[in-house]
Amino acid sequence: MKQSVKAILPYFPWLLLMLGVDAFAALLLWLADVQAFYSMAAVILLATLLFFFAVCFVLIRMERKRKQAFSDFLHVPDEYHEEALLKTVNIAQRESIRLLGRHLRDHQAAYAGLQMQISDQEEYVESWAHETKTPLSLLTLLLDNRRDELSDDMGFKLDHIRNRMQESVDQMLFYARLKGFRKDYLFEHIQVRTAIEEVLEDYRPLLLEKQFRTQLGFSDDLVYSDRRGLHFLLGQVISNSIKYCSPEPELSFSFFRQDDRCILCIQDNGIGVRSCDLPYIFEKGFTGDSGEGRKKATGMGLYLANEMAKELNLTLEARSRWGEGFEMQISFPVVHYT
Hints:
Elements: H1 2-8, H2 12-32, H3 34-75, H4 79-86, H5 91-145, H6 152-179, E1 187-191, H7 192-202, H8 204-210, E2 213-216, E3 222-226, H9 227-243, E4 250-258, E5 261-268, H10 301-311, E6 315-320, E7 326-333
Parallel strand pairs: 2-4
Antiparallel strand pairs: 1-3, 4-5, 5-7, 6-7
């Protein structure tokens, strides 16, 4: 009903004019012949109402047809839909429709070209990242097989370089995936402890260099997520703990269920984050004012971790007190089966 009223509202003055003309004609008939007016009053009233509602019906149908044609034209602004829309508008509006059609087709072509460029850029970044992983794999193989020939100090330095290069490549690769059009997530049941152990193994040289003590306070709990995405998220949080650790660093993991969520808690005893910086740690490029180490940071690690969490339908909550450590809670939804 409301849509019908809106459809005829633009024509309301003309409808009133039509009713006014009928009333004026009836008045003239009454002045000319009162008896004839009274004998034809019912017919005049009925004809006026029928004509009024017939006009309203036609106007509503025309307006609906015009809206549908306009909607189709906006969705696919080709010449066929443009011509279909032109048939529903008056002559004064046709030039505006043609101009709009040309602009929409130009923007559509530019958008298609931009999509192609982004797709090519995604393919290049992924190709570059995979090509870069080859020398990193060779470096890893060299460190594993020839470690006895290297001094401890040299071994730690090479491990540190390899790990930082691997982390930078992973960040760029996942950044391209997060901002790209194509998504290739594979959701499956994952043992949380196993996933953490795999990520800790990747960071083992740095953990040994800093002499970290790690604690896993749970065993075989399962979550439903994407394995690669979860590994990347965990890696960014663990890397953050390594960068800003204390002289006697500790890293602990706990897992518990709360209401309809499963929560993985990662806690360290590092320098932490100032209370004024805590609300902004997930913002892109934010490094804060939490020590000399953060001046060299890119501010991308926790930003990418939070973006990945959104993609996987997870939520991150950070807690910290300056000088007393940092805690990250990763909240997983509970999957119910019917």
